[in-house]
Structures are given as C-alpha cells and as structure tokens.
C-alpha cells in the first residue's frame, strides 16, 4: 500500500518562500495559479504573446509575463502545456532561464518520461498531478476541500524535492484530500493506458458500436441513444461513489445477472490481449513517437477523425434530445 500524505505532512512555508511561475492558463493552469495565489504564494503566469487567457488571468488578480520572463523570474517553474507543444516551448523559452537549485515541475510525466524534455542535472524535477480536471481542482479548493494528487520525484538535485512537492500540493488544496507517491513512468503509462482502453477510446467505441447495432436492428435512434449513452452517467456515478459492488447493489437483479453472464462475452480474452498490445505500445514509446510525429505534421488524422465523429448519427440525435433536458445544462463542442 502506498503512503498517503495530508496537510499535516506538508510544510506550507516551503512553497510560500518560493517564486512560482505557472506556464499556461488552461484547465490545470488557472486552478494551480489561483489556488496558490490564495494560499499566500507569490505567483506569476507565463503566457505566449497575444494569449486570449491574459485578460482572464489578470482579472483574477494574477501577474502575467511572457513564458521566458516567467521562467527567468521563478525559482519554481510548473509547466502546464499540452504534451505536443511542451518540448519545443521548453527548449526555446524555459530551459535557457533555469538556474541551479530551481525546481522544474509538471502535472503529467509524458514529456520527461519519453525524453521530449531532458532537464539539467542541477535542478529538482518533480510532478504534482491532481487526479481531476482543473475546474474541479479550483472548485473544491474554494469549498475548503481538494482533489487527491500524485507526487513523483524524477530528480532530487537539492535533497528537498519531495518536501517541495508536498508543500505545492498543500498550496493547490490537494493535500486536504491526500497525496500519493508514484513515479513519472507509472503515472505516464497508466494515464495513457486508461485514456486509450477505457476512459476515452474504449468507452467511445463501445457507445458508438452499441448505438449502431440497435439502430441497424430497427430500433429508434432516440431509444438507442438513451440506452447506450444517456444512461451511462447513472452507472458511472454509482461506480464513482461506491465501486463495482455498489453499482451492482444499486441496479436490478436482471441487470446484474446480465453483467456477469454477457459482459465477459464482450470483453474477451482477445480483447484483453489487444489491451496488452496497447500497453506495450505505450511502454515502448511507440505511441508517444506516433502522436508527436502526427502533431508535428499538424495532426491531420486527429482533425479528420474529430470532424468525422461530429457527423455520427449519435451526435445529431444526442444534441436534439439534450435540448429537451435543460437540467443537464447542455454543452456543444466549439
């Protein structure tokens, strides 16, 4: 069992005694910057010239600089940029401004683990990764709560990297919930695996395929939508609150019996073998190389698939049905 740290294990004075540059002001960036600022930490936000986020950050009472100036100003640099652009921006605008005993921080290990970023040997390199989206990190902080965090030390140049990480987690509210130790390797590889085989890839394909099967069998698309997508939230909420056993306790006996008898016919030994292949591609770096090569070409496959999937029948049916359910606060992708 991993050790779990909380507020009482963190020394708040450590992060309060540092100058923290948050690079990026997206989902995680805005939450980290605002939470740290309100925890009494000296913070600046590093943004590219002309960033649309500048006004938002300044409206929150935060000081904004260029990425290079922020990296030079801070002695803790937290890089919260998309994986595909992090390496080039680090090389051009962050690396030249790192000094001995600075701390280089991340909320995801991708760029360091796969060698896109190779930090100098005289800086601490660590990760504090909230296990939730930025809006939840921000909201729970304002509610005097927090989102659990992962902490990993990749390079301990000063001998104080772990203490700094715990203090940083305290500053964003994560230590209120709990901080679990891991490694850059474990966080990166499990995160990618989860995204690809279940959370995004697996679930998306199961939803689309089950919808298609019902419609092709002559059932109304509206009925198919409710059964294959809409009601998924009900099940996920039960899983989120109490795990598999609580979900099965909460559903009908008929549904539970179908779970045990038909589920293994969908996720078969062949499916498990392919999941292992996906994991092997992640572990070997093949996926990272493939994705970064795509990104450098402008991500044509990603853009093609994004557009094609917007045209899927389930999206048209879903948009129409969600408009009938204002309690959902329906959203539409830009």
How would you describe the overall organization of this protein?
By secondary structure, this protein is of the alpha/beta class. It has helices spanning 12-16, 27-38, 54-59, 67-73, 83-94, 110-113, 134-142, 161-172, 174-177, 184-199, 201-216, 221-230, 232-250, 253-266, 269-284, 286-296, 300-310, 313-322; strands spanning 4-5, 19-23, 42-47, 63-66, 76-79, 103-106, 124-130, 149-155, 179-181. It has a nine-stranded mixed β-sheet with strand order 1-9-8-7-6-5-2-3-4, sandwiched between helices. Strand 6 (103-106), helix 6 and strand 7 form a beta-alpha-beta unit. Helix 2 runs parallel beside helix 7 (134-142) and helix 12 packs across helix 18 (313-322). It starts with a strand and ends in a 12-residue tail after the last helix. The relative contact order is 0.10.
